[in-house]
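**Paired protein data**
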Amino acid sequence: MPTLHTRWLPAVSLLSMVVVASCSSTPTSTSPTSTRITTTTTEIATSSVPSTTAAASTTTVVATTTTAPFVLPTAQSQALLDQLVAAGAPGVIMAVSVHGGSPTILTSGVSDPKKKTPMKATDVMPIASVSKTFVGALVLLLVSDGKVALDTPISAYHVDFPKANAITVRELLSHASGIPPLGGDKGGNDPYALAWQNKLLADLQHHFTLDELIAYVRDRPLLFAPGTATSYSNINTILLAKIVENVTGHTWTKALHDRLLTPLHLTSIFDAGNEVPKVAPVPGLFVLQGNPTVLNNADFDHMSTLSGLGPAGSLVAPPADLITWGNALLRNKTVLGPELSDRAHTIAAGGTGLGVLGYSSSFFCMFNGCAPHTTFTGFGAPGSLPGARTLLLYDTATDSVLMIFANRTPTNIEYIVAPELALIARAEKP
C-alpha cells in the first residue's frame, strides 16, 4: 500500500465547513421499458461546446458502436450536462452503459476551477457515498463465505459499540440500526453537526481511524430501536468496515483490493483516506452551510475530511471503472451471485436494500421519507462531500447503469436523471 502524504496550504479560512457523505433527494419521473442490445466497440471523439463558465468548456464523448441500431442521443444528453454547468457547476461528467455495453462518457465544463482545465472522460472523481456500495459488497461476500450472518448481532464479530448485541449486520446494511450520524441527526445545523465540524477543523491534517470515528458517536442515544425505522448514517458503514477487518484480519482497504478491485481489474479506484491514488482526483467548490462563501478544496490539506468520511465516502474512481462496478454489482450480479444479489437489491419500504438505496419517482427517497407503496425502479447510491456530488444508478426500466458527477457542492445532479433515462427509452423505440 502506498505511503500517504498530505500537504498544508493555509490559503483559506474554513470557518464552518460541514462534511456530509450523503445527498438529499429530488423528485424525478420514471422511464418506459426497453429492448436488449449488445455494445461491442468504443470510439473516442472530442469536440468543443459553447462556454458556460468564465473559461471555455470542453466536451469529450466516448460514443458506442453497437450490433443493433441503438444510438445514445449524445447531443440531447450533452445539453443536459451543459445546463448543470450553466447553473454553476464548474464541470460535470456523465457515463451511461445500456444493456451492459461499453459506456458512453460525456463531459462539460472544467475539472479545475482555477486552472480551467477541461473536464475529461478519464478524470478521477471523489465518489463520496457511492463508496458504501463497495463496503456493503465486502460484507455480503463474507455472508456468502459463511463467515458473517445477516441476522446475527454485530457483537458476535467483536464490534465494541453500545447495543452491539441488539444491532444486526442486516440493520447496518439497511440503515435500520438507529445509530446517529457523525454530524447532525437530520443532516442539518444542530449542536452535533457543529461539534463534528469543529473537530474536523481543529486539525485538517489529522488522520482518523475507524475506532476514532466509532468512538465519536458511541455515547449518543440511538435514534430509534434497531429494526423499527430507517435513518442514514455513515457510522453504519464504518461499523461494517470494522466487521470486515475483524473477520478477515486485514484492513478494509486491503480487503477492498483483494476481494473486489483486483478481481474486477479496477486498478484506478483507491481509498483516498488511506492511499495515494495514481491520479489526483479533480478538485471542486463547495458552499458553506448557512454561509454564501465558496471554497475550493484544492486550496488546503483536507486529510481530516477524507479520513473523517472513512469507508463511508473516501473512494475515488474514474467514470469507466465506476460503470464497470455498477454493471458487475447492480446489473450483472457477478459480484455477489444471483441469489444474494436479488436479496440485497430488494428495496424495503424505507427505501433501502442491503448496501444500496432504492430509486423511485422521488429519486433516492429515503432521505425525505418514501411514500407508502412506493414503486422502486432502480437502485444504487448517491453521494455528497465538499466539492463533489456523485450518483450511481441501475435503472431497471431502461436496463441502464448511469453515473453522474459534478465538482461543486451543492449541485442538483438529480435534475438530469429522469430526462436522461427518458432519452434512452425514446432512442430504443422503433
Observations:
- Confidence is low (pLDDT under 50) at residues 1-67.
- The domain at 1-430 is CATH 3.40.710.10 (Beta-lactamase).
